[in-house]
Every structure is written in C-alpha cells, then in structure tokens.
Amino acid sequence: MGGKHYLPLTDEDRQEMLAKIGVKSADDLFSDIPAEVRLQRELDLPPAISESEVLKHLNSLAAKNKHFHNCVSFMGAGVYDHFIPSIVSHITGRSEFYTCYTPYQPEISQGILQAIFEYQTMICQLTGMDVANASMYDGGTAVAEGAVMGCGATRRSKALVSKSVSPFYREVLRNYFSSRGLDLEEIPVKDGYTDKSELEKMLGDDVASVILQQPNFFGLVEDMDNVADMIHSHKAVFVVSVDPLSLALLKSPADYGADIVVGEGQSLGVPASFGGPLLGIMASRSKFVRQLPGRIAGETVDSEGNRGFVLTLQTREQHIRREKAASNICSNEALVALGASVYMAAMGPSGLREVAGQCLQKAGYAREKIAALDGFEDVFPGPVFKEFAIKVPGDPAELNKKLLEKDILGGVDLTPFYPEMKNTMLFAVTEKRTREEIDSLVRELEGWK
Amino acid sequence: MRKSKALIFEMGRTGRQGYSLPSNDVPDKPLGELLPDKMQRSCDLGLPELSEVEIIRHFTELSTRNFGVDTGFYPLGSCTMKYNPKVNEEAAALPGFAFMHPCQPQQASQGALELLYNFEQGLKELTAMDRFTLQPAAGAHGELTGLMVIQAYHRHRGDHKRNKVLIPLSAHGTNPATVSMAGYEVVQVPCDDRGLVDLNALKEALDDTTAALMLTNPSTLGLFEEEIIPMARAVHEAGGLLYYDGANMNAIMGYTRPGDMGFDVVHLNIHKTLSTPHGGGGPGGGPVGVKERLIPFLPVPLVDKKNEEFYFDYDVPDSIGKVHAFYGNFGVAVKAYTYMRMMGAEGLKQASTDAVINANYLMSLLKKTFYLPYDRICKHEFVLSARPEKKKGAGAGDIAKALLDRGFHPPTVYFPLIVEEALMIEPTDTEAKETLDAFAAVMEMIAKDIDEDAEKVAHGPYNTVVGRLDEVRAARSPILRWEKES
Can you give the pLDDT at residue A421? Predict the structure, then answer.
C-alpha cells in the first residue's frame, strides 16, 4: 500500500482503537453513509509508487518543459525572470513557516504574524499607502477586489478600467463584476496609453472605481498628471495596479493620488511556477481600511506589556461577518508574501534600485537594437520600465518557435488580446539578461525571414 | 523567557547590503533620458539595510516563534492539518516546474500540461465529476468559481429568477461570504437535534428562486449528512443545483464520492485533503469539478489531449472566463499530484479510514471528561462544547491557551456557531495513537486545572514567547505597519 510512511497507525493500533471506540471494524465507522452512495469498488487511480519512483516520474515530466534555467527568457506580461537570492527559498523552506495554518493562535504564531506585519510595512513603504493586507491570490484577483472595494466605499456600482490594464486581469475583473451584477466599462487606449480625454468623458457621478496600470500592459509608464484630480472630482476611487519592483524608480502611487494600490508581486523574488502561486498585492489609504479584504496583522501588547502581533480588524472577514464580509477570501498567499519580504530585506533600498535600474537600462538597450532592425517597429514610443511592444514582420507564434530552437523564450504575442495590433509582441528584459543574451536575441530576429 | 523580537526595520545600518548583483553590461544612459524626471520616485524606499547573515538570523528567530505541523500535533478542526510530505516540496521546486513562464509555448510545456491533465483525471475519479478547472487558488476561490458556473448555467437557460443560495447554519463562513460575492442572497437552513440539516426545513426553503444548496458533507460537526439522497432529490426537483464544499473530503476518500451523492459542482481543498502545506495562510488550491451539463461554463483554458499532445483549450463558448490571471496555483497542484501518486487508491482510502478512526478514538477518550453535544459516530472531526467549563470560569478560548502551554496546537474554537463554546477537533490521518493519548491526557489535566483554579487557566498561556495578546486593543487602535519615529 502507498503512503504507509505517512500513516502511523499499525493494524494493531487500529484494532485497539476500534475496540476502545466500541465498534468491530473500521467499516462500522462509515455505516452512516447510505448504501446507495457507497462506492462499491476501489478508486481507479494509478498504482501507488515509492518516493524514488515518484521523483523519477516527476523529474521526467519536468524534463519535458523549457524553463528559465535552460532558456533565456524575454517573456513578461506580468511574470518575469528576475534573480531570486538563495536566502529566499531557505527561509520559506523553514517548516515552522510553511507547515503552519493562518495564525489564529497568536501566542504560538508570532513568527508568521511579525513577518506579515513587516511585509505589510514594506508594501506601504513602496506604494506610499497607509495600510496593506497579508496578500491576495494574484494580480488579477487583487485588481478585481480593488475595484469591488471602490464600489463598497462609494456605494456605486460601476467601474472604468483602462484597456492598457493587463488583459489577464481584466478578464478576472469582468467575471467578478458580471457575477455581482456590477457594471464595467473599458477606457480606450491611444498610442498605447490610457486615453485621458476619453476617461474624462466617461467619468460621472455613478462611477465607483477607475482602474489603471503602471507601468501599463505595454510596458509604458503612464502619465499620471491630473488623473487623480479628474477621478476625485467625481468622488470616485482611483485604483492602480503596479509592478512593485518598478516603484524603486517610479513615482510612488501615493504621490500621484492613488487611493488603492494593487498588483502582482511576482517580481519580488517569487518563482514564476507556470503562473502560480503568485502574490496579489493590496494596499490602500487608511480611510478604506474597513473595506479591505483578507488578513491584516496588527501590533498589540501581551499581558506583561510586551509587543506582539495578532490578526486584526477581523470584523471585515468571512469567519466573523459571514454574508456581510468585505470578501470571501480565507486562504491567501502568506508564504509567498514571506518570500517577498525576505527578497525586499535582502535587496534593501540600494539593491532594489539597482535591479530596477538594470531593467530600465537593459530594456532600453534591447528596444533600441530591435527597433533598428529592418521590418521591426517600436509601436509605442515613450518611456518604458522593463518591457516594450514590437511589431514583427510575421507571425509571432512562428517567431517564438524559431527562437525556442535556440533556447530563447521570446515575447508574448499581443494579437489574441488586441486583434487590432497584428503581429505585435511584448518583450521583457530583466536585470538577469546580459548584453550578450540581448545581442543574440537581436541576431536571431535579424536573421528571421 | 518572554521578550519581543526586534522588527527588521529596527535592525541594520545604512550602507549594509544583503545582495550581490552583476554590474550592468549595457551602455549606461542617464536616468533622465530613459525616464522623465516627473515620473521618477522622489521619496525614500524606506527598506531596511542588512547583511545576509542578519537577515537569515532575523527570519530564523521568527521561525522559532512559530508552531507548524512539523513542530507538533495540530488538531485544528476543519483545516486538516495533516503532515506535509517533503517529497512534495522537492517535486514542486524542480526548475522544470518552478521556473516556467505561463505564456511559454505549449510545445515547450508538455510536461506541465501532462501533469495537469493527469491530476485532473485523478480528481475526477476521486469525486465522480466529469471535468475540473484548476484555476481557483484556494477553497473560497473555488466556491466563488463554482457559484459563477452555477449562475452562468441558470442564466444560459434563461432562468433569471434564481437569486438565492441555501446554506446550513453549520457552514463555514466562506460559504455565505461567497454567496454575497456572487451577487446571491443567503438563505439559512437550520439543523435538527441530530446536528444534521433539517430536511423538512430545507424542503420548505426550496422554490423557483433557489439557485443552489451549498453543503459540506461530512458537515463542520464532522457528521455525515445521512439524508443526502432525499436532500439532493428535493433540490434538483426545485430546479436548483447542489454545491459540494470539499473542506471535509479527507473523511470519505474511497468510501463515497460527491458526484455519486448527487452533487453537481465540487471544490476540493488540496491543501487539506491532498497534503499540501498551508504556508501560514496560503498558497492553497481549490480545484472545481462539475458534472457534464456544467462543463460549457467552466473557466478557460481547460487542459486537453489530442494525438498524445497536451494543450490548453480556450474553445469553451459559454465559459465564465477567468478567475485567475493564469492557471491557478500550479506549484500546489504539483505537490498534490505527487501525493496522489505516492498514495494510490488504497493509500488514499486508508488515509480516510485512519482519519476517521483517529477522530472517533479521540472523541471516545475526551467525551468522558468533556461535553459532547452530538454523541454519535463522527467522521474526520468532532465538536465538544466547553459550556460547563465556561460556567466554572474558563471557556473554549482559555482551554486553547492552556494547550499552548503543553506543546499542542489547539482545536478550532468558537466554530461551528451552532455549538456554544465549541472546540472543533480534527486529528487527521497522520497522527500516532500515542499522540492522541497524550493529547487526551493533557485535556483531562486542563479540565482538572479548571476545577481547581479556573481563574489561572483564564489568564494563560504562561510558557509561550509572549503572554495572552490583547486582541481588543489591536482592533480598537489599529497599528497596521511600522513607522519611523519622527
């Protein structure tokens, strides 16, 4: 039988225990399951295998995949190949952290509670917000919940989202809104940027939230001048989705008037993992704290006056408020948030600026080189952080196939999300890329067709 | 010895660094040339400056101030805190899984797709469902996805009256919260004196506005809903659907399956039943399975296979869309799949058998000393009431604190709401008889302590790194982040 090493009971134990319970057999403990619904056969699953066999099997599956260790990646669109210092996995691999539950018993959970409190503080520092939660599932659900928060805070039921917000996130947002019967309208994009004059026209006193992304999905840094004023003049809530790493260089969202900051935290030392687990970031001004979804750690004192940490403001949450809760979220991505804290602590202010700076420089270098190639076009001029859109002379899928032969993960094809942008790809360049790697991408592009 | 631990912001010194990065090897341009001044950050980052060893010691010390399944017995009811096999972690950390980009070409992702495909086959067999989506990142996320699918199904049939979801009083808080999030109204269904859903009350509550019944079976009381067949029939006859909250699936693997009980939609908590760790709150995984007629509404993409090639299928015309930016918590799925392969059919059934033996055994030991409101065979967990102890001066919460002093994680307290001073105990399948005996002995000692000096018990714990924390103060004057003293 499989998994015996995880199941301590021996047959003798079971017999003794059943006798103590006062039943003859284990089957008697299942006699409350009506016969009509009892499974009359064994489950039809692949046979149990040993640990060495399972590792062999998993290794053989993993070997069929390309990944950042055997390819050079220029893929982005929300998930990036950034360097992850060794200490991150060593801390998240400490089983006191990864085998504990949500810290309902604070006196024996000070480790994870303090770590969450520190994470919240770091997110507040980066974003300029007053309060952050312990995490959401990912950037997509953070955007959706941020928009819903705006509806709760304003008691209105309509949101405007820029078409320059990640299409992956907009799809989640659309779903959350349609299910709740909330209205969602998309703000058009002009030359890759949110069309501010359109935004102004669409704004009205029925709008709860306006969602923008910085840098936007095309990698461009949006001009946030006057955006907050425009939104606030209608008493709507300004939600911005950010790449937290970019905040080492880019203006803090608080400084351009954002009310709620959400985003994907994968760039903070989180393995890409084929798109999950990721890290949803959620922070806001203090006036929205009662609408914040999810866990929040807070500082308090113990019976002797020592500083300690607890989960707090739980009257927002599902286990207390039930149908009146701010959200249904229970499990989150706490361990991923811990990893992000370790990453931010390791990088510190200078390391984070260095990483962001190298992204900016290397993306700039790659963009210039690629745009100079015959048939390749830099479609949206303007400042970018670490990715940029390029129109290529042919089918992006074909190009990626060819790049893959050279162990290069090429760009993300934008056509499925923006049919009007035919043959356009999004290339991301992180601090991990060397000049040589960028040059060899450029050579491959040059030799194509 | 009690003491606070310095915050990371109170440590380090300007100029220390905890990273090592290669230098930039492309021609350096002035920052202003790449990023206009007005777009640049103008305030400090406010992050700490520490060397690597200081960071490691800080977080290592924090970890010693934390209790996990690897530390000791963790009978937190409803959470299935079973052992998290180490091989799961090793598998998920393989670079061929951990460092894949979600948008990379499918031909370069065949191993991952094959794993997802095979994992789905296993989940289908385990639950008697016809298709699964692995996108939901947690149980509550699965609930929301499931209700969205149910909503899409009713809307597609042009049935727009159905705006209510029925939930038993014993349900998890996520159920009613999810119902609201999906834009539905909650209708509470009472339990009878056996602790089971009151079938007559359910029938009365059903009408043509019922979208679904959400049910956890076995319930949060650890009791199997014996009348599941007439319940399912009644819901279906009223035109509603049955939603299975899989939080308690660890009790029934290989014995019965939600699909065979009549459920139309299922979510599983793979971080419970399939042994993946809880990570201090997450990441989890909440795959959602449905019966044939609901497949057209599942989120995209689904994973399929054609001529030995695996692929993402986006061609689901009535799909609700997406609930996660990508494919959900893939890394968690790798762990759960690893566990399923190690256990096989027989191992999974044995896990449920042992979970149920452990729970009934512990219940039989504890009911001598503590009040057991529903005294019948339980499944994977049972609920005691500390009402008598509370009258003496120390309730469920105080018993929990007393357990901390004796090296055990306490049960879930004050839930389910239908039991006063509830202590919800779930020992799981991965605990030895000796552990249960030791736990029961400690519980008896605590009961004695309450008889002798309830006041003392009410002020515990005494042996933890901090004393009882003032949760009221934390909520009344919230300090939610560290701030630099000005």
Answer: 95
